[in-house]
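Running this now, will post back.
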Amino acid sequence: MKQGVFELTLAGVCGVAAIIGLATSQTRQPYNLTQIQFCPRSINGVQSQVALDKRFCQMPRFVLTEEWLRYGLYGSSIPYKGDAIQWVRDLPTDNPNQLQGYCMAVMGLWGIVGCLLVRSQRLKRTDYELGELEKTSDYATWQHNKHKRSIKQHSTQLYTDRLKDGLSGLDTEERKALGLTDEENERAKARIQLEDFMKARAVNHSVMDKTIAENLRDKAKADIERGKIEGKTKGAIANDNHPLTDQRLISDLIEALKNHEDGWLWKIIDNQKPVWVLGEAGSGKSTLAASIVMLREYLFDMPLYQLIDAHAGENLRNAWKYLSPQLIAQTEEQIGQAFDDARERWLDRINNQPDKQPQQLLVDEFTNYSESDIIKEPAKKFVKASLSDPRKAEERLVCIAHFFTNTAVGGSDGTAKGRARGTIQIDRKTADGKTPLKVAIVNGLNNSDGDAEVDKKVTIPLWLIPESIHKHFNGQPVDFDD
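Update: finished.
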């Protein structure tokens, strides 16, 4: 209210200023005039004559300024000289305040327009807010009444159902009393009604499933047709339909592992048994071992805790290029100590760490450890402990050796049968000592009956290399169908 009064008052002030400015800017007369007064003096000094002189003296008289100046202020033509005719002021035709008056009038008019515009916008905003408040209130009232109506309708339906059930119960009791029905007959009717209800619901669900399937089929056809027009491959169309998120990449990779030759790759990745990768030089042992470690890290968030490798310096530049071990043991002293530490770590994780995070351990060049005086005993104890402790310690073990004899695996005498059943061995092949062959032999992988398979011939897919796995999760997904 105060704001409205202020706006109207300011508009009124601006209006008055406009009127004053307009009046001030006007010209008084078309000619230059001189205002004079005729004030003759009475000769007889009669009181009445004095009053008459005053009355005539107060009345203004106007003559042309040009005439006034030409005749010497009328001194030569009027007999009454002295102060009988008195000069009052000159009234020029030009108005010196005309420009200021116009400016004042224009500013006053713009002030009126501005005040009215501000008032109009404020009233519009106020009306809009009142309208929104009214709509919100009406919507809340409608929602409240709708809720009340729904409750009333539900209550009425419940009452009707209870009444129907009661009447049905009374009818059933009367029919039982008349011998027209019995308990067994009523149970049979109830069972039939339940079966009919389940069938009707199943029919509704099947209709909905059919509609969903038809919609998906039509969408797939449309995507394929659009892809043909745009020149896209099936993989690109699939990527358009399913954005490449981390979970999507993981799901695609798991599906590829499970679909490759009855899923032996997935069984190895998901298995808790120690994995031994065997083969002569150039057969691709390090490549496969690194791939297994990387797959477990990406799929199960299982970091590589330690790398034990006498040739770690060279392998980190090649085979282990995409691995990130937390610890590295390279010299004989470090390797022997790493084997002892691993056994102690397993026991500590089993006994003192109930909520332990799974991790991995990678060991290379096992073939030469039995010939070192420093590493021989720690390696032997490590291999024996690896047949039981890593699984309970939640530590996955991947080992590399040229052969699977006692000597080639650290001189672990008396563990041949345990190693055969308690580990998985992947024997890789090469024809020229340079290029790995696609075929391999797997032992120790249990079948559906729980028996360890012997000499299972498998093939290793071409994409199963560290570089492809790294690219798959870094912007270049693997095309498993290619």
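The longest strand covers residues 436-443. More later if anyone needs it.
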